[in-house]
Amino acid sequence: MPYITLRDGAQFYYKDWNPSESTGAVLFSHGWPLSADAWEKQMFFLAGHGYRVIAHDRRGHGRSDQTWDRNDVDNWADDLAELIEKLDLTELVLVGHSTGGAEVARYCTRHTTSRVAKIVFISSVVPQAVQSSISPDGVPISVFDGFREAMLKDRAQFFLEVPRGPFFGFNRLGAKVSEGLIDSWFTVGMQGGLKAVYETTRSWEVDYSGDLKALDIPALVIQGDDDQVVPIKTGALAAIKLLKQGTLKVYPGGAHGIMDTQPEDINNDLLGFLKA
C-alpha cells in the first residue's frame, strides 16, 4: 500500500490510479469524516478517460496515522504539499469535497498554484460554514457544538444518523435510501481517530474568503440546493462571488454527498471542466 512519511514521521496513505497516463493528474481531497474511498466513482470514471487520479487519507483518517496533533487546515495543506512534491505532480487539478475544499484552497494560498492548473469545490465549507458576521446564512455554532457533543457521547450512533439523514438527503420524503451507502459511510467514518474527526469540525469555523480571493486559476463550484450540511447560500453562492475565474453549477434538489447520489452528473461535469 502506498504511503509517504510526513515531516513529523506520520505515515500518510494515498492511492494512485493510472500513474503511467500523461493526459493529466487529478488529486481528490475528501470530506469529514471519510477517506480516499469516498472518491472511487469519480476516480474510476476519470481513469477510464485517461487521467491519472490520486486521493489521500487525511491525517487521522482512514489508513493514515492517527496523530494526536496537527489536525488543522494549515497542517493538512502542508501534508498535501509533501504528497504533491513527492509525486512531482504538475498541471494538477485539485478537487475538494466539503472539508476537502478548505484543504485544497489553503494549499494553494499557503504554498503555491505553480503546480495547479484548476480547482474544483464540491459541497464545500468555503468560504465559511459557520454563521458569523460575514456568513449570516451559515450554520449556527450550536449545531457544530452538537456534533462534537454527539461524537463524545456515542460516536457510533451519531455516525449512523448522519448518513441516514442529512448527508445523502435520505431524510427527504420520497428519497431512495441506500443501506449500502449508509453502511459504507459509517464504516469509513469509524476508521478515523476520534480526536482527528472531532478537531476537524473546528475547520468549519475558519474564514476562507481570503483564500478564495487569492486564487488565480479557473475554479468550478458545484453544490446541490438542498444541501442540509452546508447551506448553499453560505457555500457555493458565497464562494462564486469571491473567485476571479469561477464557474457555478447548482444541482436542483442535490444533497451534500452528491458524488454518491448523483455520480453521473458529477463525473460528466468534472470531465467537461478538465477538457475545457
UniProtKB/TrEMBL annotation:
This protein's source sits in the domain of life called Eukaryota
A Pfam family this protein belongs to?
Abhydrolase_1
GO CC annotations on file: membrane
Q: Which UniProt keywords apply?
A: Hydrolase
Stretches assigned to the AB hydrolase-1 domain: 25-261
What InterPro entries does this protein map onto? AB_hydrolase_1 (IPR000073), AB_hydrolase_fold (IPR029058), AB_hydrolase_sf (IPR050266), Epox_hydrolase-like (IPR000639)
* Gene3D superfamilies reported for this sequence: alpha/beta hydrolase (3.40.50.1820)
Q: Give the Gene Ontology MF terms in alphabetical order.
A: hydrolase activity
Is Glycosyltransferase a UniProt keyword of this protein?
no
List, alphabetically, the PANTHER family matched: AB HYDROLASE SUPERFAMILY PROTEIN YCLE (PTHR43798:SF31), MONOACYLGLYCEROL LIPASE (PTHR43798)
Q: Identify this protein by name.
A: Alpha/beta hydrolase protein
Origin species, per record, is: Lasiosphaeria hispida
